[in-house]
Amino acid sequence: MIQNDLVVQSAALLERLNGLGFDILAEDDFEVIQAKVTHTGKEWQSPMFSLMRNDFTRGSAFWAFLMKDDVEVGGVAARYYDLRSESLESYLHRTSSAQYGGGDPAIESIAKPVSENIGGRLVYFGELYFTKAARGNIKVLSTFARLSVILAAMSWPDFDWLYAFIPKEQIRFADAYGFTYRLPKAITWKDPEPLGRRNSHVLIALSKSDFWHLLSSGELSEL
C-alpha cells in the first residue's frame, strides 16, 4: 500500500538522520516559523516564502527544520498551489512581476519545456539553508531533503510535480534530494538579475509518477 511505503521509507530516513545526530521538525504554525528561521541564521527570505508578504494558511505551506540538540540548524520551506488551466510560464511571469519587478515584467523569457513538462498541482521548495556547523555532510543533506519531500507528499498527495531552483554549481545535489528532472537555463531574467535569482539557476523537479516509483522501490531511502 502507498501509505505503508510512506511510513516505512520515512521511518528509515528518520532513523538514519537520528543516527547522524540530527532530527527533523515540520512546522506550519506561522506565528513561530519566523523565529525558528532566525535561529538558523538565515537573514533573507525570498518573496515566494516571505512571511511578511504572504498570507499563508495551514495546509498551504510548511517549513521543515533540521534540528541538533533541540536547536534549529537548518531548514527548507514548501508551498502548494494548483495552477489548474494556467501554464507555469504564465504563473511565473505574473508572480515575478509583483515579487521582483514592482509591477513591471521581471522575466525576459522562460524555456518552453517549463510549461510543456510541468503544470497542474505543484509543490515548490525553497529557502534551503544550513548553518556552518551543519554543512559538509552529504548524508545529512540528502536524508533531510528526502524526508522533506516525503512530508510534502503526505501533506499534498494529489500533487503532480515537486520543483525547485538551485545554483548550477549545486546540480550534483539534485540526485541527493531525490529529484529526477533538471532543466538548465529555465528562466532568463531582465537585467539586472533580482536578488537570489540567476539565469544560471537550474530547475529541478520530481513528477508524481517518479516519486511513487522511487518510494515503492525503496530508492528514496537508499543514499
Topology:
Elements: H1 2-19, E1 23-27, H2 33-39, E2 61-68, E3 71-82, H3 88-100, E4 107-110, H4 112-117, E5 121-130, H5 138-155, E6 161-166, H6 173-177, E7 181-184, E8 187-189, E9 202-207, H7 208-217
Parallel strand pairs: 5-6
Antiparallel strand pairs: 1-2, 2-3, 3-5, 4-8, 6-9, 7-9
Helix pairs in contact: 1-5
Could you describe the 3D structure shown?
This protein has 223 residues and is of the alpha+beta class. The protein has a seven-stranded mixed beta sheet with strand order 1-2-3-5-6-9-7, with helices on both faces. α1 packs antiparallel against α5.
- Structural class comes to alpha+beta
Count of helical stretches: 7
- Beta-strand level of the residues, as a percent range? 25-35%
Biggest sheet, strands in spatial order? 1-2-3-5-6-9-7
The count of DSSP E runs of length 2 or more, i.e. the number of strands, is 9
How much helix is in the residues? Answer: 25-40%
Q: Indicate the low-confidence ranges by residue numbers.
A: none
The backbone outline, from C-alpha atoms, is globular
Query: SSE string, helix = H, strand = E?
Result: HEHEEHEHEHEHEEEH
- Spatial extent as radius of gyration: 17 Å
Let me know the largest β-sheet: 7 strands, mixed
> Averaged pLDDT, please?
94
What is the CA–CA distance across the termini? 23 Å
